[in-house]
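Record 1 of the preview.
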Amino acid sequence: MRPTERSFITRWPFWVGIALLAVVFAGCSRDPQVRKQKYFDKGTAYFQQGKYREAAIEFENAIQIDSKFADAHYELALCYLKEGALQRAYQELIRTVEIAPQNQKAQLDLATLLLAGGKPSDAHDHAEAILKSEPQNAQAQVVLSEADAALGDLPKAIDEAQQAIQMDANRSASYVNLALLQAKNKDVAAERNLQKALVLDPKSVSATVALGEFYQSQKRWPEAEKQFQNAVTIDPGNPALRTALVNLYLGEGRKDLAEQALQDAKNSPALKDNPSAYRMLGGFYLSQGQLDKAVAEFASVYAAHPQDLVLAKTYAEVLMLQNRLDDAAKIDDAVLKSSPADYDAQVLRGEILTRQGKASDAIPILEAAVKSAPDNALGHLHLGTAYAAVANFGQAQSQWLQAAKLRPDMAEPERALAAYASRSGNTALLADSSGELIRIEPRSPEGYLFHASALFSKGDAAGAEQDLKKAMEIAPQDATPCERMGDLRAAQKQFGEAAKFYNRALALDPASAEALAGLVNIDLEQKQPAQALRLVKDQIARAPDKGGLYFLLGQVELQNQDSAAAEAALQKAVDLDKNDVPAFALLARVQVARGSIDQAIANYQRALDANPRDVHLYAALGGISESRGEWQKAQDLYQKALQIQPDYAVAANNLAYLMLEHGGDVNTALSLAQTGRRGLPNLAASADTLGWAYYRQGVYNASIDMLQQAVKEDPKNPTYHYHLGLAYQKANDYAMARKQLESALQINPNYSQADEIRKTLSAMPQQN
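->
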């Protein structure tokens, strides 16, 4: 045999052995029991090292192989508990006890979680089930006690807590539970039991903190401080213990020590990379109203931890409080680049865009966020605000109502609804939303102020007065409740009482234009214009940098028919506050009245530069352009207003009329006229425009109905009679046509269409 053949034969058994071994090992790797146990063991090792996210992944892998692997479900639940993902922990515990109801540890953890989640009745049932199989389970007995306490049966809870101690007299946590219940019952034995708990377990953080809180409740500050400091020493890596110490200092009014404790937490080696710890100082500055310090702190911490997305979003929100919208947008962009589906960052992006005057861009972003998380109230809240910014108030109200439904404890949706209802005169909505605001924030004056307005609108002055008194009681240093009470008394013609409240408001806030306006109106009502003027000037001397006071001065000067002085005051008002659109508008009207059209246009343009999305300014400029015969320019201005606010009635009405007069599309003009009439249902001009649009479309009966309303609402306007006369003519009602056309000539023989009217009358049949 050749050597090559011989070598092959001698090696054959070796290769066969290798192949057989491969088959054996391959069989083992495909065995699901082996594979799931391998994942489980790796997860257990990670858990013991404190690597809970890695452990969770391994337990999830094991569950994918065997969905009924109870031990893996339980260990996964423990991982979620460690990470604070309570909802996911709850789901895994439920699954565990479904598969393995005999797992008492899982039952106990589930009962504890249910208790923490505000479901004491369910927790009670689970604890009882455990005690049936393990009558001496002291921990289950404690959960039962805590559940009964949460259900309001304190005597029973105390009795059960004492039974837990009888089951295991050396268990520290049982003494803590009993002591906490005794403290609620004002039983001095609470202190003794907490001390007993610490004797049994000197390193018990819960016992140490509970004793500190007991001393704090009795204002035994040094003893409480010592216990909280002990707790920090026992567990230096627990940021919640630093929070307890800070709250103690704040309770004592020692803000400097609270700030130092947070600085220590931030710099502690044990908390160096703990997000809860390094975020706390910035949050403290925010809570104390120290916005500049908060921004500086969050900027510093963000620079050190740019990958902390929660911190980044908080920093962006703080920047928004300073109105640094561009800076906030940059931070939020970085979050979205790292995590494009981050719901909070998407909502924040929409909020920033809305506040930047780009609500149209914000809406699709917020709509997408709401679609991805329809049960999150924050998205609905800000989507409503964006809709309101483009004047889509129907959608805005719908979104705010949805936010309120999802989060009945959140004040912002109710506040938005109340503000909208107040502006729109929706008394029913105002009453509902303000009532909810009072329920959510009973110690805030705002809800009572809104509610008072709703009641007064319904004719319930006594109820409104009670609300205003409550608001003054809650916020005695706030001028607004006094202003509103002054308004109430003025409406009741009790001018002396009204003046007292207005003067009280001014004492609280010397720059209160509302209170001053109330006093001025009283003087004007009582025919004392000189006194009104002196009052405003005296207040300006006290607060010379408040534009609102000069706006009021301008109004009073106009009442006194001193247009030059009024113009000077209004000019000062807009110089001090470039966002005071009413002051700009009144100044421009004064300038138009004296023939300074170019100056008025310049002031309107200044106002637009500062307030580029204010539709009233575009409409006012459009009106000036119309008066100068620049109808194409006027159309452009009205169209710009409607791009910002599609249902802005003034612009819609005026644009419709221009289109009808200058050969525009009649169908478009009709749609605009209908928008104008909906928004201005009691204005003669909107009835005339809509009637004229129907006339142009050849719908004469509808035209006559609408033009009759215009004439009824303003019988001295020759144009309305002229239009109505033409509509009657087209309907072959010549008698009524003649009557209306002749009325137009009687009102103004020099009317611009007088020659056309005379021609029409001469050509018209004498009888129908």
